[in-house]
Design goal:
It is a peripheral membrane protein. GO terms for molecular function: phospholipid binding. This protein is about 80% helix and about 0% strand. It is mainly alpha-helical. It is rod-shaped.
Length: about 325
Amino acid sequence: MATLPKEPAEDARKQSFWMPGNYVRTVHRTERSFQACNDIVACFMERAKVEKQYAQQLSQWSSKWKSIVDSRPLYGSLMRAWQCFFTSTERLSALHSSISQSLTSEEGVRVKTWQKETFPKKIFCGFRESYDTNTSFSRAQKPWSKKLMKLEKVRVAYHKACQREQAALEKEKQANENSEMSQEKKQKMTEAREKATEEKEMARDKYEKILEDVSTYTPRYMEEMEAIFEQSQEEERKRISFLKQVFLSIHRHLDVTNNESVKAVYSELHQTLMAIDEQDDLKWWKNNHGPGMPTDWPKIEEWVPPVKKLKRKKRDQKGKESRP
């Protein structure tokens, strides 16, 4: 068996959008949206710094270890594979530097420009949208608020009349139960109770009339308030749509898994690693540092008489004669 929906608590009713003044939450949403844009820019400017620092750290790491590796005794395809890590890292460093630049110069500037166009301000009144929305809500709610105040006034009066009647009923009951009380006093108690009941009925009639007036006016009030609310909703929809596109754009910048440059870097690195060939490396070492090196095996070497050197004077004289 389906259960009936619970009626909202008293506090929930007081906090309802329809109650006087509670539309201010919608009015303040504009200011909060503006602040949210500031927070988004600050957030991803900080991420841009992280990307820049990461790029610098990658570059520093690559430079440091590249010089160390060049002095190490590795060789051949294994050395080329190790060195390829540094080449790939330099390319990744450049990529993360470009991500940092994109977040700063593209997305940050984009949001700031849109923010300036979307949140115009009115002199001494804050944001124009907030001022206009607040004015429209206030104008639409003012007649209904007045009727509601009247209703509250007659409601209080009616409840007081009910209390007076209840007190008169109790006194009348006590008087009737008191055998020592005179009939005259009992009659006065009865008359007081009848008067209280009459006043209560009159207060209830007035209460019902004011309530009927409020109920009759409520549809018009709701229509006007909803129209203003929907205008505010449309502005907020535009803001949400824009920020969604900003987030998607930031995602494209940060999502390195779908970046073709990153794919190329790791693809080339993988190919270099797969090209490590132990047989080729061992053969290279054998031919350059092992038994495969060319050598002159010992053999009989014939004696060749040395060439006699001319004395210095004869050499100088012979040199002068040979000059033109």
